[in-house]
Write a structure and sequence with these properties.
- The complex is a heterodimer of chains A (154) and B (153).
- Chain A is α/β, with parallel strands linked by helices and 154 residues long.
- Chain A is built from seven helices and seven strands.
- By secondary structure, chain B is an all-alpha fold.
- The longest helix of chain B has 25 residues.
- Chain B is globular and about 45 Å long.
- Chain B starts with a helix and ends in a 6-residue tail after the last helix.
- The chains are: A alpha/beta (154), B mainly alpha (153).
- The interface between A and B is large, with 43 and 42 residues.
Chain lengths: 154, 153
């Protein structure tokens, strides 16, 4: 192992890494788009259709639809609860009895370009909910896969 | 066991030892990594978000990687194209590709919906099998450069 570390390739690689560290740090310091060197921010996991389906079929998660009431009524994942992201403060208490801080939650909306599910997930995380996932592909993908849906308000 | 596949592989490896083939591979791989680094150097915050979404690194290391990794790609790619310190550059690129393959595979298995972050910090390719195969091919190319007996550095 010691012999390997002395090889030309390793020495060159070490030099490149040192150069990259110096350049990266200086550039980050000088750039208007620089970021803190250390951050403890955690991203909420984004799951795909396959994982969402697994959680649905095993009953291990509560699905929260972040879309408006009208969109929810037109069709939603079967058993999902509606918590429109733009009406969070007004609507949260209406579904709070179905939730506890430990339950696994999956938020979704209309696909990857829709930010409502992310916003809803962020709000829930700030409230202390520990196990949140975002079903990024959303209702269109669920519908396309022919999985269980229902219509109307609960 | 048939010896025909072995002879075929032998021919492929022999072909890949050709000086001009290696130069072409170096230019392609170097160009890919320079292109891959550009947007990430300019947008470390978005790149950090993509790294964080992989849920592999401890949170406190994410920003450091987002700041430094694109520069490793940039320098390694540049050195491959220029033709100096090619062994070190190829070693780093091989290592990076190996890590990328592991990370992509882990997230496919875990069912995470993760942007690749391979070439851009904007909405790009979502991690899938085809990206893993692409990186395996690039990894093979980088090994060819590393294996090259001529000392071009």
């Amino acid at each position: 192992m010691a012999h390997l570390l002395k090889t030309k390739a390793f020495k060159q690689a070490a030099g490149i890494i040192i150069l990259a560290c110096i350049s990266g740090i200086i550039h980050n310091f000088l750039s208007p788009y620089g970021i803190p060197f250390i951050s403890f921010q955690e991203e909420i996991p984004r799951i795909n259709l396959s994982k969402a389906k697994e959680l649905y079929e095993t009953g291990r998660a509560i699905f929260l639809d972040a879309r408006t009431e009208e969109e929810f009524a037109k069709g939603h994942i079967k058993g999902a609860l509606n918590l429109p992201s733009q009406d969070f403060d007004d609507k949260f208490l209406g579904i709070a009895e179905n939730l506890n801080l430990e339950v696994k939650i999956v938020t979704y909306c209309d696909g990857r370009t829709c930010e409502s599910s992310t916003y809803l997930a962020d709000r829930l995380k700030k409230m202390g909910f520990k196990d949140i996932n975002i079903f990024a592909e959303g209702f269109p993908e669920w519908l396309k896969a022919g999985l269980a849906i229902e219509k109307g308000q609960l | 066991m048939s010896i025909i596949p072995i002879r075929f592989l032998d021919k492929i490896f022999h072909l890949l030892e050709n000086k001009w083939i290696i130069i072409v591979i170096r230019l392609i791989l170097g160009g890919i990594f320079i292109y891959a680094s550009y947007d990430k150097v300019l947008n470390p915050e978005y790149f950090a978000r993509i790294i964080r979404n992989y849920h592999i690194l401890p949170g406190f290391l994410v920003n450091l990687f987002a700041i430094i990794l694109p520069w490793i790609e940039l320098f390694s790619g540049s050195l491959l194209i220029i033709g100096i310190f090619t062994r070190g550059a190829a070693l780093l690129i091989s290592f990076l590709l190996f890590i990328f393959i592991i990370a992509l595979t882990a997230n496919v298995i875990r069912g995470l919906d993760v942007e690749c972050g391979c070439f851009s910090t904007q909405r790009g390719s979502i991690v899938g099998i085809e990206l893993i195969f692409r990186d395996i091919i690039l990894f093979f190319f980088s090994l060819c450069i590393l294996k090259d007996k001529r000392n071009l550095a």
